[in-house]
């Protein structure tokens, strides 16, 4: 048996070592910020669940350049992701971050707060009051631990920095000459959701109330509430919509996701009313949703979503 030369052996070890070994020496890869409107930029993350491969980054952080500062929406899942977001902002402006909006309780969207407050201690962190309450009651640490497990300790240095400023439905925050209109749909994706409309840019950040070409979890919300959130977003007739995951698009992406949710719920209800159990209706529901079956997450989520829909239907009967 031949012994590998020392240099080759070291190179092989470096290849085999997990990328999670040291986040400080292995920052989150840079993802370019796309300008989607006059003042608004979006960093579109890869689709999928948090993992070693994507370093825990898979949402859509956004930032808006106002006259006197930057407003960030959903700075990502970790300290390192938040730092990556700041690197992209620095390529566009030297203005400080003045506000951060966190769309809901799921940590892949807001644990990047730590990076923002490290760099800009005076930044104001804004969220739904129930999101703040749940985070304070322990859900923040649940998400810190979950992200760390899913990334094989890559996000171990991340600490939860919980928002402190609650907002309510139909509230407007004005900063730097721009208006940010808040919509807080009830019982939607997580029951802690806000959608943020950048009024001057006719752009709506939907959070995970809308996903584009991706099927994600709905464990913490309701189908009926999520459909109503889509209806509300559609009724705004904005020029562009930034989903929680997937590419920014027109109103068509909201209508398509609503179609998925409403088709699933209606089909499950019809089968439930016919006396079928959740496992008995899966093939029929899948057939009704055939145009969505090649989307990432469809296969993994379908069975669970059918079961959740059954529970929701039974709770409302």
Automatic annotation (TrEMBL):
<dbReference type="InterPro" id="IPR050855">
    <property type="entry name" value="NDM-1-like"/>
</dbReference>
<feature type="signal peptide">
    <location>
        <begin position="1"/>
        <end position="23"/>
    </location>
</feature>
<dbReference type="Pfam" id="PF00753">
    <property type="entry name" value="Lactamase_B"/>
</dbReference>
<dbReference type="InterPro" id="IPR036866">
    <property type="entry name" value="RibonucZ/Hydroxyglut_hydro"/>
</dbReference>
<dbReference type="InterPro" id="IPR001279">
    <property type="entry name" value="Metallo-B-lactamas"/>
</dbReference>
<protein>
    <recommendedName>
        <fullName>Metallo-beta-lactamase domain-containing protein</fullName>
    </recommendedName>
</protein>
<feature type="domain" description="Metallo-beta-lactamase">
    <location>
        <begin position="58"/>
        <end position="245"/>
    </location>
</feature>
<dbReference type="GO" id="GO:0017001">
    <property type="term" value="P:antibiotic catabolic process"/>
</dbReference>
<comment type="similarity">
    <text>Belongs to the metallo-beta-lactamase superfamily. Class-B beta-lactamase family.</text>
</comment>
<keyword id="KW-0732">Signal</keyword>
């Amino acid at each position: 048996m031949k012994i590998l030369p020392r240099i080759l052996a070291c190179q092989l070890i470096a290849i085999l070592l997990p990328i999670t070994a040291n986040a400080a020496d292995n920052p989150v890869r840079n993802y370019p910020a796309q300008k989607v409107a006059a003042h608004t930029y979006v960093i579109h993350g890869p689709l999928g669940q948090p993992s070693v491969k994507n370093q825990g980054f898979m949402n859509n952080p956004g930032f808006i350049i106002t006259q006197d500062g930057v407003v960030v929406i959903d700075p990502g899942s970790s300290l390192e992701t938040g730092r990556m977001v700041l690197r992209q902002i620095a390529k566009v402006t030297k203005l400080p971050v003045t506000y951060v909006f966190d769309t809901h309780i799921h940590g892949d969207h807001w644990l990047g707060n730590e990076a923002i407050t490290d760099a800009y201690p005076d930044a104001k962190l804004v969220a739904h009051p129930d999101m703040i309450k749940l985070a304070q009651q322990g859900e923040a640490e649940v998400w810190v631990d979950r992200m760390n497990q899913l990334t094989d300790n890559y996000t171990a240095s991340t600490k939860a920095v919980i928002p402190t400023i609650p907002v309510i439905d139909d509230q407007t925050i004005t900063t730097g000459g721009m208006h940010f209109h808040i919509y807080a749909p009830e019982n939607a994706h997580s029951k802690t959701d806000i959608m943020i409309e950048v009024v001057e840019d006719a752009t709506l950040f939907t959070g995970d109330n809308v996903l584009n070409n991706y099927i994600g979890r709905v464990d913490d919300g309701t189908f009926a509430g999520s459909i109503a959130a889509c209806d509300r977003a559609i009724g705004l007739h904005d020029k562009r919509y930034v989903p929680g995951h997937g590419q920014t698009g027109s109103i068509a992406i909201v209508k398509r996701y609503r179609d998925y949710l409403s088709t699933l719920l209606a089909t499950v209800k019809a089968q439930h009313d016919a006396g079928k159990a959740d496992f008995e209706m899966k093939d029929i529901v899948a057939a009704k949703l055939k145009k969505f079956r090649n989307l990432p997450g469809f296969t993994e989520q379908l069975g669970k979503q059918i079961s959740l829909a059954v529970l929701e239907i039974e709770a409302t009967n």
